[in-house]
Amino acid sequence: MTLPQVVLRPKRARPFYGRHPWVYPGAVASVQGDPADGAEVDLMSHEGQFVARGLYNSRSKLRVRLYSWDSAQSLDRAFFQERLSAAIRLRRDLLKLPQAGSACRLVFSESDGLSGLTVDQYDRWLVVQFTSLALHQRRDLLVELLVELLQPDGIVLRTERGIGQLEGLELQDGLLSGSVPAAPVIIEEAGLRFLVHLTEGQKTGFYLDQRDNRQAVARYAGGRRVLDAFCYTGGFGLAASRAGAREVVGVDVSEPALALARQNAELNGISTASFIRADGFDYLDSQVRAGERFGLIVLDPPKFARTQHAVQEALQGHARIQGLALRLLEPDGILATCCCSGLIDMPMLEDVLAQQAAAVQRDVQILERRGQAPDHPVAVSCLETSYLKCLICRVR
Ligand code: SAH
Questions:
Q1: Which of 63, 114, 231, 296 is the most buried (most CB within 10 A)?
Q2: Which is nearest to 224 in space by CA: 274, 297, 285, 291?
Q3: What is the distance between the alpha carbons of residues 224 and 248, in angstroms, rounded to a whole number?
Q4: Is 235 in the pocket of ligand 1 (CB under 6 A)?
Q5: Is residue 57 domain-resident?
Q6: Residue nearest atom 12 of ligand 1, based on CA coordinates
């Protein structure tokens, strides 16, 4: 069977021979065979050579997402089963992550050769996100395969804001299979228990990508007064408490997140942590004015940068909170500054920090340069999958 073909312009095939999975309209010379949105297509060089097989969407800037570089491979049930199995094997056999009562990311889109699908496991439930129209069209198949491979108690669909517009895809959050508990699910991470709202929380409920960074930061927390800025449900702060922090203050704008943070403290018998509703910028500023001091500060703000134009604005945001945090830290204090925007890379974040350190005349030493937890792997063919940065520093 011959598939519709998307023919590249001359000299535009190189990234795709390098297995980059995103074909933008600017690289496309012509589309032949009138593929429907979501249909399988062959990506061809301008000389008529097969390059890769992918799924087409005329409504997306990712005109074709590529999945296979083998012309004999159909993007059929067996293909998706193999990709899902490989993704699950990484977490289960190599990383030893999905255990009863815990949580991890099982499928991470391009990082697992499945552009447009993310699957997180929370104890016996799965939370699925579709970020491509084509994989959403194959939703029943993918859910069936997940049930077959994992036998979860339930599968919930969560949608990232803005995806409808990007992909021409209207999604309604809801149950895809089985059932989900009305109450929050409890997951365990490094000996702490956390409540997670599968149907209402941010992201798919918990920031799984920061798992290892929470532990790394906690190792410095003993005896210190800790400020967990942008704390969500208390991940960093409670890990610090457990590791012996003297006192923990968590700050976030989201009242539902704070309510869970307080419950999480209680669930773990932690009485040294308090959680305050405030704007992170205002709170840091108010603490500087009040002459407060902290021994360890975590800055884990949301992705300020959503588009290329917002990069400058986002860098300014990071600069502002870093500058305030540097002024709040006692001598030999610890700063953990995180950035989850893929548009800002590590050198950019370090550069901002260097400028802030100079401005407040503090010596800052980077102790650890960290990224996302390994259940969010980085595909070398798509370095855009590397997005999370966490610098742990000593501030003299
Ligand atoms: N550190 C957390 C994840 C933080 S995600 C963890 O380990 O789980 C970023 C958080 O910033 C979200 O909880 C969001 O509610 C919060 N947030 C967004 N804008 C904010 C602002 N202006 N001030 C304070 N918190 C904000």
A1: 296
A2: 297
A3: 9
A4: yes
A5: yes
A6: 232
Residue 197 maps to a domain: no
Two tokens, residue 29: 């010379």
Please work out whether the CB of residue 284 comes within 6 Å of at least one atom of ligand 1: no
105 and 218 inside one domain: no
Q: Is the CB–ligand 1 distance for residue 205 below 6 Å?
A: no
pLDDT of residue 307: 64
* 2 CA → ligand 1 middle, Å: 49
pLDDT for 171 equals: 81
Is the domain of 257 the same as that of 372?
yes
Q: Which residue has the tokens 């920061």?
A: 210
339 and 264 inside one domain = yes
Q: What is the pLDDT of residue 163?
A: 78
Q: Whose CA is nearest to atom 7 of ligand 1?
A: 235
Residue after which a domain boundary falls, among 46, 68, 90: 68
- Number of structural domains found in the chain: 3
In the predicted model, residues of the chain with pLDDT beneath 70 are 1, 305-308
Is residue 200 in some structural domain? no
**Ligand 1 center to residue 321 CA distance, Å?**
13
Measured in residues, the chain has a length of 396
Catalytic residue set: 340
Tracing tokens 């409808």 back to the chain, one arrives at: 164
Is 225:297 a contact under the CB 8 Å cutoff? no
Q: Is 279 in the pocket of ligand 1 (CB under 6 A)?
A: yes
How far is Cα 141 from Cα 77, in angstroms, rounded to an integer? 7
Residue 49 CB coordination number (10 Å): 12
Residue 192 lies in a domain: no
Helix, strand, or coil here: 176?
A: strand
β-bridge partners, 129: 118
Strand, helix or coil for residue 364 = strand
Amino acid in the structure at residue 145: L
